[in-house]
Amino acid sequence: MSSLPKTSSRPGQSTSKQNYKKIWYAPASRAKWYWLLVSGTFYLLLFTWYQYALHTGQEAEPFEDPFRLFGICAFVLVLLSASYTLRRRFARALPGKVQSWLWMHTWLGIITILVALLHENYAYITHDFLQVPNDLLEANLGPIALFALILLVFSGIAGRLFDQWQTRKMAHEAATNGVGIAQAVEERVRHLEETAESLCAGKSDAFKEHCQKRLQPTNQQKNMLASLSGSLTPRARSDLQRAEEALDERARLLISLQHLQQSQRLIRRWRMLHILIASLSLLIITYHSIMELSITILHITTIVPSP
To answer: Which residue range is the domain that position 288 belongs to?
Structure first.
C-alpha cells in the first residue's frame, strides 16, 4: 500500500501542487470465508457428537470418550493456529499468502475455545465454578489451561481490531499528507531540508540564521521573516520565499510523520504483548495436554493418591 503522485505533463509546474492518487486498498481474501466454512463445519460435527454423547448417557468427563477426543482436537487446533507465526516469521517459503494464514489463525483460534468447552463439558463456565485458588491446579492445570486459552484468543481478537484501527489511521494520514507512508515522508523531509540548505548557499548570515532556526522546533520561528525580507535583494527574497515554502511543508510533514510512527509503535507493542501471552498460554496448554495424554492414553504417568 502506498500513495503515488500523478506527474504533470506541463513543464515548470511546481511539484508541491501534484495531485496524489490514493491507492490504499487491500483486496479481500477468499480464505476468510473458506476458513470460516471449514471451522464452522468442523465445530458443528463435534457439537453434534457432543449432544449425541450426552443423550446416550456417556459420562461427561474430560478423561472419557468422546470428551477426551475433544481435548485432543482442541490441542491440535492450538498447534495449527500457532503455525501462523511459523509461516510469518520463520518459514516464509510455505505456500499461501500471509493474509490467508492469518484468517486460518483467527477462525481456528475462535473455535478452539468452543471445542475446549466441549472437552470440559462447559465446566468452570456454566457449572462447577472454582471455589478456592487450589482448584486451578486440578486435572494437571486444566482450569488454568482453559482460561489461558480464552485469554489468548480474546487478546488476539482485540489485537486484530486494534491493528485495523491503527492501520486505518495510518492509511488516512498517508492519504492526506500528500506524500504517503512513513518511509516516503522521511525521504521527503530530507529532500526539503537539502533544498533549504542549498538555498542558503551564498546568502547572508541573517538568511542562514533564519533557516537554521526554522529547522529547529522553536516556538518563534518566523519572527525574523518580516525584518529580514526588507534587507534582501529581489533574488534573495525569492530564494527566501522558496525556503519558507520548503520549511513550511517540512514542518507539516514532521507532524504527519509523528502520527505515523506513533501508530507503528503502538502496533509493535501490542503484538509483543500478544506474543508474550501466546508463549505463556501455549506452554501451559502443552503441559496440560501432555500430562493428560500420558495419564489417560499412554499410561506413562500415574496419579499418586494423596495421603
So the answer is: 31-161+277-296
142's CB contacts (< 8 A; 6+ apart) are 62, 120, 288, 292
- Residue showing cell 481456528: 108
Whether 228 is covered by a domain: the verdict is no
pTM above 0.85, yes or no: no
CA-closest candidate to residue 78, choices 226, 278, 261: 278
Q: Which three cell numbers stand for residue 136?
A: 486451578
In a domain, 236, yes or no: no
The amino acid at residue 22 is K
Helix ranges (DSSP H) in the chain: 31-55, 67-85, 98-119, 138-176, 182-200, 205-214, 225-230, 234-296
Q: How many domains does the chain have?
A: 1
Whether 214 is covered by a domain: the verdict is: no
C-alpha angle 91-92-96 in degrees, rounded to nearest 5: 115
Torsion of CA 158, 161, 165, 167, to 10 degrees: 110
Identify whether 11 is part of a domain: no
In whole angstroms, give the CA distance from residue 255 to residue 250: 9
Give the tens place of pLDDT for each residue, 146-162: 999 999 999 999 999 99
